[in-house]
Amino acid sequence: LSPVCLGSLRRAAKIVRVALMFFQNMLTSAEARELMVMKGLVAVVKRLSKDNWADKDITTSMAALLKHLQKDVKQMSSFEEYEKEINRKHLQRGPVHSSAFWKTNYKQFEKNDFALIKKLIELLAVQDDNETVATALYDLGEFSRSR
User: Fold this and answer.
1) N or C: more exposed end of the chain, with fewer CB within 10 A?
2) Could you report how far apart the first and last alpha carbons of the chain are, in Å?
3) CA-CA distance, 74 to 56, in Å (whole number)?
C-alpha cells in the first residue's frame, strides 16, 4: 500500500483518508504496529504530511499514526530488540538495521568475544530465507563501517 499512497494516487484524498484510517484502527494491535514500522509506514506518513491536505481527517490520522508509531520505532531501535531478532534467527529490515543503529550500538557487538557477530555470520547459511541473509550481510557491512 505504501507505493500506492506515494504514487499516482497521492492526491486522491478519499483513498488516502481510508488507508490512513485503516492503519489508525490497527494501532491497538502490537503486532500490527510492529509490521507498520518494519514496512516503512512512518516514512510514508511523514512524506504525505508534507503536503497540504484540506481534509482534516487526513491530518488527524497522520498525527495519530506518527505519535503512536514513533514510540514503537524508538522501542524497536533498541539493542534488546536486535538481540531478540537475532535469537529468533530471522532478520527483517527495520529500525535496528540502519546506519544510525550501528553508529550508536556497534560497541555492544564486541562483548562476549563478538558473540552476536558470530550468530550473525551463522545466519548467512540460512539458504531458504533471502531476506535474513541480505539483512545479515547489510548488518555485517554496517558493523565493519562503524568500527
Assistant:
1) C
2) 37
3) 27
Q: What is the spatial distance between Cα 117 and Cα 109, in angstroms, rounded to a whole number?
A: 6
Please state, in angstroms and rounded to a whole number, the distance separating the CA atoms of residues 9 and 11.
5
Helix/strand/coil (H/E/C) assignment for every residue in 72-117: HHHHHCCHHHHHHHHHCCCCCCCCCCCHHHHHHHHHHHHHHHHHHH
Q: Which residue has the cell 507505493?
A: 3
Full-model pTM: 0.57
* Rounded Cα distance, 59 and 24, in Å: 12
User: Greatest CA span in the chain, whole angstroms?
Assistant: 56
DSSP-assigned states of every residue in 9-20: TTT-HHHHHHHH
User: Is there a contact between 113 and 77 (Cβ–Cβ < 8 Å)?
Assistant: no
Q: What is the pLDDT along the chain (147 residues), one digit of tens a residue?
A: 555 555 544 557 888 899 999 999 999 998 898 888 878 898 899 999 998 888 899 999 999 999 999 888 776 667 878 888 899 898 988 878 888 888 888 898 999 999 999 999 999 987 788 999 999 999 999 999 988
